[in-house]
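Here comes a specimen:
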Amino acid sequence: MNTKDIKILLVDDEPDILEIVGYNLSSEGYQVITAENGVEAVKKAKKELPQLIILDVMMPEMDGIEACEIIRKNPELKDVVITFLTARGEDYSQVAGFDAGADDYITKPIKPKVLVSKVKALLRRFKEDVKDTVKVGNLIINRDEYKIILEGEEIILPRKEFELLSLLASKPGKVFKRDEILDKVWGNEVVVGGRTIDVHIRKLREKIGDKSFKTVKGVGYKFVD
């Protein structure tokens, strides 16, 4: 997919951010759509169906957390990559963002060129095709279609939860170290908080089953068949 075919929805209530970041992304050939608040973001996301949404957290009318939750409930947008762009670096903001379904988290201020490189990294992983199926017990992971079947029922997971589950279930019993998980699921170019993995594991436990995941303190996690 060429950059000209990729739509990016940039959402921020600061005109300078929209102008500067939008200009740099457009210069790379991306189609950039902008919105100034969460309400407008939801409407444009449904209309434009972008591949990536860069979403500010603190905005008037509807904040980014609520907007993300609404967008994630739309079946047509289940595969869109969502990254938060915000000046708030507290853990609770990151946890709230991931709980809402975000894939990544970038803290302002950030140089436009650095942001562009992160966008490219996100979209690279978005385009990667892994065409195989993993079956572990009553769990089937179709990595080609991004589909999870648990005991005969389909479960919809946000992209990062899917990739994390897919990684752990690829080798049941193996302990994946935290650094390895961050590298393979998030990549070295994306800034994520220290609690990112823990938040995603907690959500997977709620959806897949607590007994399927074991924490190895000080090391990482493993999938238990």
The chain has a mean pLDDT of 85. The CA atoms of residues 21 and 54 lie 10 Å apart.
